[in-house]
Amino acid sequence: MGSRWKNSGNCCASGMLSLCVLVSLSICLSRAEDSAMENIVTEKKAEESHRQDSADLLIFIMLLTLTILTIWLFKHRRFRFLHETGLAMIYGLLVGVVLRYGIHVPRDMNNITLSCHVNASPATLLVNVSGKFYEYTLKGEISGKEIDDVQDNEMLRKVTFDPEVFFNILLPPIIFHAGYSLKRRHFFRNMGSILAYAFLGTVISCFIIGLLMYGCVTLMKQIGQLGGDFFFTDCLFFGAIVSATDPVTVLAIFNELQVDVDLYALLFGESVLNDAVAVVLSSSIVAYQPQGDNTHTFEAMAMVKSFGVFLGVFSGSFALGMATGVMTALVTKFTKLRDFSLLETALFFLMSWSTFLLAEACGFTGVVAVLFCGITQAHYTYNNLSPESQDRTKQLFELLNFLAENFIFSYMGLTLFTFQNHVFNPIFIIGAFLATFLGRAANIYPLSFLLNLGRRNKISSNFQHMMMFAGLRGAMTFALSIRDTATYARRMMFSTTLLVVFFTVWVCGGGTTQMLSCQRIRVGVDPDQEHSIGPDGIERRSTKHESAWLFRIWYNFDHNYMKPFLTHSGPPLTATMPACCGALARCLTSPQAYENEEQLRDDDSDLILNDGDISLTYGDITVSTDASGAHTSSRPSVVAANSDELDRELALGEHELVIRGTRLVLPMDDSEPPLPGDVLHRRSGALS
Amino acid sequence: MGSRWKNSGNCCASGMLSLCVLVSLSICLSRAEDSAMENIVTEKKAEESHRQDSADLLIFIMLLTLTILTIWLFKHRRFRFLHETGLAMIYGLLVGVVLRYGIHVPRDMNNITLSCHVNASPATLLVNVSGKFYEYTLKGEISGKEIDDVQDNEMLRKVTFDPEVFFNILLPPIIFHAGYSLKRRHFFRNMGSILAYAFLGTVISCFIIGLLMYGCVTLMKQIGQLGGDFFFTDCLFFGAIVSATDPVTVLAIFNELQVDVDLYALLFGESVLNDAVAVVLSSSIVAYQPQGDNTHTFEAMAMVKSFGVFLGVFSGSFALGMATGVMTALVTKFTKLRDFSLLETALFFLMSWSTFLLAEACGFTGVVAVLFCGITQAHYTYNNLSPESQDRTKQLFELLNFLAENFIFSYMGLTLFTFQNHVFNPIFIIGAFLATFLGRAANIYPLSFLLNLGRRNKISSNFQHMMMFAGLRGAMTFALSIRDTATYARRMMFSTTLLVVFFTVWVCGGGTTQMLSCQRIRVGVDPDQEHSIGPDGIERRSTKHESAWLFRIWYNFDHNYMKPFLTHSGPPLTATMPACCGALARCLTSPQAYENEEQLRDDDSDLILNDGDISLTYGDITVSTDASGAHTSSRPSVVAANSDELDRELALGEHELVIRGTRLVLPMDDSEPPLPGDVLHRRSGALS
After folding, report:
1. What is the pLDDT of residues B67-77, one digit of tens each?
2. CB A372 within 8 A of CB A179
3. Residues B58-67, mean pLDDT to the nearest whole number
4. Minimal CA separation from A437 to chain B, in Å
5. Which residues pair with A25 in a beta bridge?
6. Which of B340, B399, B487, B659 to mutate to probe the A interface, most A CBs <10 Å?
7. What is the pLDDT of residue A544?
8. Gap from B610 CA to chain A (nearest CA, Å)
9. Is there a contact between A287 and A309 (Cβ–Cβ < 8 Å)?
């Protein structure tokens, strides 16, 4: 077989990687082949693969359907030992086994493997098939030993998704929903502690785990157990991805049993934020690229650089998320979009989604941006929405979250068997479990001790044990670990991470109720009860002083400026802003703000039901200003008022909350203040 | 530069296309290049393209957001000349212009075009980059003259989606929503006529247009205007895709002005069904593959075969759609899933989606299956859902429909400028417009004449003119035409179709109100009024006798067997089924069925509000059976009862309907029977 090739220099401009070769080989097949025939074949192939894809996706849909039906049975029977996510994993495992061992796919003949050996991997590839040009796109690198499998395990490889799917499609709704349903009041009450756990804690556990794993890896190297490179940065990376907790199971049970709200707030707040921290942390560890020939030595400069990356990416994503949230709030405030709830919902959805895309386009982390966008939307935009849109948005994201979460977990189960390049190493696995445990401990206990120095209502030891125990790993950890499985180290991490997730979700998740009882943590706490204890006010003072400085600064700013600016509620800006910018204040304050102020005196109740819903409503503000007057003299009184009104205000935020885990609550929440049938009715619907 | 290559026959098994070559060239770049460096470069490239994708998607999100805000303004100002879809197209056009002429993208250097000239286009391609194997997947064929553009117009090519996206992601929710919100009562009243228009009419217009276009094409060939092949099958294909009407604009206005309900039903029903017909028709035309060397001669055998394909695919998709719908109904009926509306909604969503995937996997048409699934879900499952889920599902699919529809239309506008291979041919375009017009005429007028022979309430001439005028082309036509733009003929079709859509949506859509007034079609008709006219009953009898045979068969079967079997409503199966299978009947009939029967006597009203919602509720049935008794003697009375109860029953189906266009209705529908505040409140929300 003769081969000729010429270099057609039609696009060989400068640019280090720009090369353009035209190789023409005439092999195997006769030149005389009918091109029409070829077309048909190509079409058939495309159709075939489309069918295959549909079938694969169908598998997952069926899995989810099965999961839903089983969950229903469990709830029906009040069976609490297995959460839906755990169930989804089990079903995933079963299907994985079937796919791996049950079905034998004959070697796929239509799949030609042509391999041109050149020195660059273009993003686009043109293949000239006897005159016709076909375009190919880079799918990714595959390991050398995989090549033979490419055809054998065509089917297995089909059911394994592109890892980016998790970050670009499945994770965003989950994270957004988490932010959109942060249990605000108790979250802000414990803001200081939550931030400490989420930021300090995650970093601590990341480095602890990293160091321990490095020890473990060096040990393995000694006894020749290591089959490839495993650098310190890899260990740190592992530490970062394993530090993202996701106690959805535990929270669901907490919610169901109405466990102490502060404990709930601490766990939920931490888990929401440390996801964000872990993502940015891992990406900045990857960004650690020392110069020089040996790229894995320690280098201060690179260290500083990746710390800069961390700060930059995090703050950038945070800012973007806030920005889009604020924009949505302004649009919904200043247009009468609320007359058309469909348009409103659509806008809300699109704006929230654009946050993600914007962040990704700017090179920030979309998931983090979406989280803060969700919080902003809940805190400001939500108040401007019409009641229908409030329901719609809540229900929509609840549904998306539910589907995405269960999809990820069932995929986790499936991938344990369908993933081609698992590297299970007993020593590494044992080390990982140990390190995860110690890392969690090093996060919770020391920080709790330090925090208790500052807190009035201490984080009791049994709470600490519970938090320790509730360090489940979930969707985020999985998504981070599957994102890159190119190297040996990454594969070993991935395999190990899977086991960690399985163990924590099944064992820790399943044992929650037992743990609660053996730690004697009181259940059946009415969130509002503790505030109606009476004027003895120990609780009060304690909450008031917890993380006072941080909280008060934020609260005053939010209450006096952000709320009135972004929503129809709060004191008129005319009252809170300095006299100089009275004109601006007047045009920014919505007429309702004045009316509301009047209303506040005679009736709070309906406000609570209307938009006290998720927001911190503005309780009974002692400041009194007439619409026109912009006398700043009243501001101190606003500030002063806080200390007392605070809890009452925050208390209003409690009604009709959809919280991350609530879909698991059985309709047995009779311990709540009586609401008009309709709302209560719809609420219990949203909760169940 | 030296080139060596060896043929490693490691996988050259049998199988006509299975070849495996290993070519190794060492060009341009030095062998000594650092592989780590390479990795980084590859990563960077991937990241870059991801950013690009995000940015592109962001463009569309922004477009939609802009559209929403403008629509709001229009509605706010009661401005009816431009529908949101038309608006979306305009914005799309603008952005398209900017992308095409405004932004000049520098030649992308990172994009290597390596073209291996071999005799087959594999689905998967392995490229061996100095030891590393990268996997490539077939994206599709691109025309020879495009190749130089590949790099120039990287950006333009990026914003053009894979056409399959429309069929697999955007179209299904639209079609499902159409089916889920078919205005049942008037639809079934005019079922005969609708089916005639949808099936006969579409086929007629397809062939008329096909023939006319063939004439046009031959003319062009004569005067040497034709730049490539254009066979008769292509003409027929064009006829098929252009025959799918989508008068969403018109329907929205009808709805707003409350135009005569029968006219509405005729138009909506036709448009929903002829989408399905057009899809299957076009696919069966493509399937027309005569044997022999000349593949474009007429051949009876192939003709029959493709007719078989039509019947097979259509009935198969229909059956699948029905099947999944029925399954969902059964699951929701026999489980207590309604206690957890989130689970219920998720299940509903997943089952409906699985219809599509199942159909695609089986080689049927997913879109058609989804349509009939939607109808079934609305007709049966909807009654079993809890009120929350009823709202949720309605709102969810309303939102999806809204987003998908506007996305498609804005993409249409965009693609007019960003699509690379437009073929605008004045003669063809003029011919197409003419043919489209005549085809529509040949559909409406003759059929109306024939139908009027059988109808009591004739389709008046002004109705016919209105239907003629309302033959807008929309999403389906576009999706079908963009699906395959490989050949010259297909490209010309695509470009022409775009113009047809633009014209019809803007001109016909915009002129609807004028047309209505000049045709003197009465507006502001209360759907229920005509039935409360009194016992003179001309209307009654007419509706009763319209397509009597078809309707009555269907209705009796549905009312006596399907409803009781699939829902909690209807007469107990024990009453309707023959005595022999009494046991089966007893276990299939839900306890409610008996209770309902009791209730019927004392109060209808609340039933109307509970699940009379979309379903045909079971009016006041004259038959009376005790739970145990399975005496079939009562069946005749059931049948007999229909003739009178029919309209009243159908009338119940009217309340709180979400219909395809309703999102456009301004909250000004006071002409409806008073409902409890909550429902009315939420309804107007759903409508606006």
Report:
1. 999 988 888 88
2. yes
3. 90
4. 33
5. A3
6. B340
7. 45
8. 14
9. yes
* Cβ-based neighbour number of residue B579 at 10 Å: 12
Contacts of B345 in chain A (CB under 8 A): 395, 399
pLDDT at residue B277 in the model: 93
Beta bridge partners of B23: A116, B5
How confident is the model at residue A428, as a pLDDT? 93
- Contact state of A119 with B127 under an 8 Å Cβ cutoff: no
- Judged against a pLDDT cut of 50, whether residue A51 lies above it is answered with yes
| Percentage with pLDDT > 90 across chain A | 34
Residue A576 CA neighbour count, 13 Å, CB half: 21
Q: What confidence score (pLDDT) does residue B533 get?
A: 41
Contact criterion met (CB below 8 Å) for A274 and A440? no
Q: Which helix (H) or strand (E) holds B44?
A: helix B35-76
ipTM of the shown complex: 0.78
Enter the tokens of residue A317: 């994503």
Instruction: Please provide the average confidence, as pLDDT, over all residues in chain A.
Output: 74
Judging contacts by C-beta atoms under 8 Å, the chain A residues touching residue B128 are 115-118
Q: How many angstroms separate the Cα of A17 from the Cα of each of B3, B111, B113, B126, B408?
A: 19, 8, 10, 19, 37
Best of B1, B73, B114, B233 to mutate (most A CBs within 10 Å, chain A): B114
Residue A175 pLDDT exceeds 90 = yes
pLDDT at A607: 29
Residues 6 or more apart whose CB falls under 8 angstroms from that of B107 comprise: A11, A13, B151, B152
Beta-bridge partners for B232: none
For A38, the closest chain B residue by CA position comes to B120
pLDDT digits (tens, 9 = 90+) for A313-325: 999 999 999 999 9
Average pLDDT, chain B: 74
Calculate the CA A211 to chain-centre distance. Answer: 26
Which band of pLDDT confidence, cut at 50, 70 and 90, is reported for residue B33? very low
Is the predicted pLDDT of residue A620 greater than 70, yes or no?
Answer: no
Q: Is A583 exposed, middle or buried (0-12, 13-18, 19+ CB in 10 A)?
A: exposed
Q: What is the DSSP string of B509-576?
A: HHTHHHHHHHTT------TTGGGSS-TT-HHHHHHHHTTHHHHHHHHHHIIIIIHHHHSS-SS-HHHH
Kindly report the nearest CA distance between residue A288 and chain B, in angstroms: 12
Which of B19, B133, B139 has the CB atom closest to A147's CB atom? Answer: B133
Tally of helices (H runs) and strands (E runs) in chain A: 32, 5
Chain A residue numbers with beta carbons less than 8 Å from the beta carbon of B172 are none
Question: B133 - beta bridge partners?
Answer: A142, B128
- C-alpha A413/C-alpha A417 separation (Å) is 8
Pull the structure tokens for residue A666: 């059985």
pLDDT of residue A146: 54
